[in-house]
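User: Modeling request: complex.
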Amino acid sequence: MKKGDITRRPSSPSRSGRDGSKERPQRRPDGGMRIVVPLQGVVQGRGGLVLGSLIPCALFYFLQLYIKRNRPPPTPGSPSSAAASSSASTPAGAISTTIQRTLSRGVLSPRGLPALSARGAVARAGDDDSLYYAGLRRCADDPYHPSSNPSGVIQLGLAENHLSLDLVRRWMEEHAGPALTPGGDDEARELTIRGLATYQPYHGILALKMALAEFMRKIMQESVSFDPSQMVITSGATSAMEILSFCVADPGNAFLVPSPYYPGWDRDIKWRTGIELIPVPCRSTDNFNISITALEIAYNQAKKRGVRVRGVLISNPSNPTGSFVPKQTLRDLLQFATEKNIHLISDEVFAGSTFGSDEFVSVAEVVDELEDLDRGRVHIIYGVSKDLSLAGFRVGVIYSYNESIVAAAAKIARFSSVSTPTQHLLVAMLSDQKFISSYLKINRERLQKAYRLLVDALKQVGIECFKSSGGFYCWADMSKFIRSYSEKGERKLWDRLLEEAKLNVTPGSSCHCIEPGWFRCCFTTLSEQDIPVVVERLRRITDGHKSNR
Amino acid sequence: MVGKLLPAASPALSHVATSGAHGEDSPYFAGWRAYDDDPYDAVSNPSGVIQMGLAENQVSFDLLEGFLREHPEAAGWGGAAAGSGVASFRDNALFQDYHGLKTFRKAMASFMEKIRGGKARFDPDRIVLTAGATAANELLTFILANPGDALLIPTPYYPGFDRDLRWRTGVNIVPVHCHSANGFQVTVAALEDAYEEAAAAGMRAAGVLLTNPSNPLGTTMKRSVLEDVLDFVVRKNIHLISDEIYSGSVFAAPDLVSVAELVESRPDVADRVHIVYSLSKDLGLPGFRVGVVYSYNDAVVTTARRMSSFTLVSSQTQKTLAAMLSDDAFAEEYIRTNRERLRMRHDHMVAGLARAGVPCLQGNAGLFVWMDMRRLLLGGGGEATVADELRLWDLMLHEVKLNISPGSSCHCSEPGWFRVCFANMSLDTLDVALARMGRFMDRWNKATTPQKEH
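Assistant: Request completed. Predicted assembly structure:
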């Protein structure tokens, strides 16, 4: 290989100004003598009164500017001290921790420490600002427990399904061990270490794709079937969404996202891809339905700004509202996407967690219907974290009707692949038809019950909820309890809920809801006994509150 | 009705999706495809292609199987332990905390210490888990480098880096050229040259990435060279990533000198040093997808942890491996036995190649040998070229039916070197491969020996 033959990546569009990292100017070898010498003249009084005062001021100003521009990059001092404190626990690790802290004052290296990338630095800032993450942290620090910590923070902000864990656990206890222990006979050969341990396709083993395709068909009322070859398995829906985003849009491009939407997308999608998310507000007067008119307006506004919209992103069932996107709206969305020649991404992770009387319609059903459509613009995100309560397994799905996207995503999946033993375990579970049917049925019943319990509890204290048909949340209207009808007012209420009522709920602003006062409350982490506690806690806020509307 | 896949005429895909940066058009991967089409099997396809291009460790599977057989609760859900069932299950099924299971991180830290003979200590809270070393390397690249920046990497290097480090990140690789004259060791001059090259091309060098033990060379880095590299990164105020994925596969002297050892005696470098590890090679468990980012820089640890949301390891896998790795007796025995078996395989391979008249770079680690076939490229007059090397590679693949990795796909500056794996097959298969090699060399020697008698 000749010198100069650098393996250079195809050039990516310039992103100056977006990443906020400054170019470091040339280092001055003279040690700043250019400033000292003229100063001598001024000090010795040769400059005259006016110049004698102006010049030092000017020089001082420039000195400050010089220092500012040559300041070493932000060192890992205070922001990370919280993280560092946890590493101080083990004496064995003390050496590296102590060294680290001393260094962070930037003493030894005159030029400071090597910087992190813009993407490395942005993340931490973003997380610190978001109420969504702040609430999760608060709860993690002081979690409620009926007997050991009755005054702790009750978690209503994290979508974990505790309602049907017992069903899954029982299955695991009976089947998991044998499923993974190396067997002697041919039948179990696949499950020997050799079968489990060796390299497998990064995009998932065929058996799992087939099992998931069948599972997805089942939860969508068997009205549509899925082709395993259009599927890419990744380590969780979070990575599925990111990988798909990498495939359909470039840095600086945007997705239109009907709001309110899942707060996690702000980090999951924007962080490393550089894709912008443009909220397209839906209104309560409209039942938070997606408005094509609003999408049209947002699309044109983006165009005026010079931002290229690459797709529309929806969740169905919706997070946070819990409603289903009507079939006609899905058709309209496809029409819109076709007109603009953009992608349509449907996050359907809650498709199996439906309750109530309405029927869920996946975008897959509508795609199937329309023969002459260019299906290559439609993609579905799925995962087992919600519907099967198996968040710890990290199994997500990208299902795309575009074979180029499937091929690209399959290769990118190498960065987010799933353990083979986990895949096998999941195959075993999904293949147990009897268990799956029973699980889905019981889980739905429990979801329905828990939903009703929380909705009724909230009603007791005067809080109305939007009608949900699926998912893990009540979308609650607490606007009458906020003093000023604004985002600030909502934030104050959220603060009170967290600090006084010790309830962690997700404020609508984190979901980009334009109407203040809506809060997302998860009902799947509550037991029946917790409900009266929640009611009592809420009364701390709602009682004696004069309605302001 | 199954949806038909229409050709994707519109809408457009992203640059990432359409770029060739996935690198799967290189010979490295072409060989794999040839193998997939015609794989060797002792019984059903004895003339098929033998896969010698995959660095997988299959020599110690029985040890792992033995452990799982004796400790079924590791793989199962521990229902036996009274009262622990529900809580532990809930933790496992739901656990998706990007901190990773504490027990697993502790077990991993202890394993990493054992591998280094206790010469360095690892803090479990600095361990960030990722789904494989591939993800760990990409993660660090995202965190330490901006799009358009460059990583300086000594050649020859693992072909996968071209894809893993550049594809989504937008970061470039500038090679640090190493030569056989000094056993392909990194020199300060080469580092400086690469740094200048990057600057001349308008790229900011974000760091140096070493693989120690080296893939594809199969050698460990000398302490003095490592010190030089550390001095260099301090001088340039850049980062150092040390990919130590083969650290447990050092089977002969000299012992591994890990950068972790040096950091403990050099406080000035800590903030810029980051280590990548994985269980794929040392434990032979690539299918489990377990990688580690270990950083001495708090900011990097915090950010890496959050970024690992995109590449978490399943809780069930963490649990199983925690049980295995925290069993000190098992871990020590495994490390020792694995090393011994690798050494035997390595020596067997080197001896077989020597008999065939093919020398190798003297190696002491890894799952492969760096084979010297330069002699076979000469004779056409003039210097050997990459084209010559690829012709030979093609010959090896399609006639000798051995998939070996050409040095050019590892960006080696000298044509004629090949990486050949020895641990991903049975001993019998290895012997078949060596026999084929022997026959090939016989034919070659006969064909190229100048006719003296006339």
